[in-house]
Amino acid sequence: MDDHSEVLLSCKDVCKNFGATRALIHVDFELRQGEVCGLIGENGSGKSTLTSIFAGVQPQTSGELFRAGRPYRPANMVEAQKAGVAMIVQEAATLPTIDVASNIFIGNYELFSKNGHLDVKKMHREADKILKEIGVEDIKGSTLLAELNFEDRKIIEIARAMYLKPEILVIDESTTALAQKGRQLIYHLIDQMRSEKKGVIFISHDLEELEEVCNKITCLRDGVLVGHLEGTDITTANMRPLMVGRELEGSYYREDWDGSSSDEVVLDIRHITSENGYVQNLSIQLHKGEILGFGGLAGCGMHEVGRMIFGLDKTVTGEVVHVPSGTKITRIDDSIRHNIGYVSKDRDNESIILNASIQNNTVMASYKKLSRRGFISPKAEKRLSDRQIETMRTKCLSGKQFCNQLSGGNKQKVAFSKWLAAGSEIYILDCPTRGIDIGVKAAMYQLIYQFKMEGKAIIMISEELPELIGMSDRMIIMKEGRITGEVTRSKEVTDTKLIEYMV
Ligand SMILES: Nc1ncnc2c1ncn2[C@@H]1O[C@H](COP(=O)(O)OP(=O)(O)OP(=O)(O)O)[C@@H](O)[C@H]1O
Known about the structure:
By secondary structure, the chain is an alpha/beta fold.
């Protein structure tokens, strides 16, 4: 990087404590014009904490921030945005009960107010304009947010971050929440910001993506800034040891190419159609000992399939049958009773209760298993929860810590732990490794493979083609609510082959 370029944002000696947790320890950081700085580190290393301080979400405990060389103390996100620093946060940050435009301009309605009256039409028009500017033509400012799916809601957050034309854009682990369309949109914005000599801080656990997109990498480990990479040194091979402090060996995914499973069907999904029309007359069978992968582009219906199988969404035609018991799954209770677990893509709203402890979340689906003559021993609860914390290497103070105090990746570990603790026989995993760091990701893949070998059955819905190819026995590709391709595990399967069925 050109050292003569202007420093857009910096911090000196920043510390952040949450009670006993030291999330940031004496961090110095600099972002210059034209830099796209990838911020890496294991789950809980302090990435979101640092960037949220830059974006005015919370103040540091000590240390100083500077914006273009001047002291910078944003009191909230709106103030930071006005100072040219915008952030797209990791989790959903939109309100479903108001329209798209109101979500984009939240905190800035005065832009459209005159004599105390809000000019709603003008606000809708302006929202349409901004959406168009960032390359989105199919969402309108007047649409109620609740009508949009998860990916499109994320796109609204991008529009919100971009409308004041920020000089610094922070993207916190957002690409994994987005399908291909949204990712291309973010990459395009990053390119544009770089060429305009603005700055981007990009948090991601996808090292290939970082290698592609960034011209600088900064790494945090346990709250301490441990190093930078620049230019040709930005390779996945250099990033891995920097993050975890040791070499990671072997392949991420399972190493065999045997896509066989038992003939025994555990779930028979017959002609299901969803209420919202995203899934149309879909039939598929899941077998014992099978990892069945679902892939497709945004809006293809694969996430809805997972929700319907678990009993979270209604089917308007067809049925889902748990074959060993002959039960029709129509509600979540049916699933839990038959040892079916589900990890939703929308973690904070559907997979965990944020205002409850790790232990309460972990044992939530295991009460039947833990109950002895109607009583549950607190010791047994703690034992079960502690075992999952250890297996998943969840970074926390103890099982008593509330989930809203955990880093994103560690929340995802709790979401998975709940079904692990319950001893599920069938797992429906929607983007299971979202936000998880590379070390734990490898451990999670091993665990999923172990489940298969134990005769459990897994549905893995994924937006990551390497993950689908690397882990599935069979890959189901969907487009517009229907199955367009079915591919069996083999060394010869490529991204290109799967994409052909998606478009
Ligand atoms: N509000 C809070 N209260 C208590 N502890 C917190 C709070 N927010 C974050 N922490 C702790 O601070 C540490 C750093 O968390 P942070 O979210 O910054 O990690 P991260 O590197 O962004 O992780 P991930 O990759 O999982 O998103 C973690 O130990 C986390 O539990």
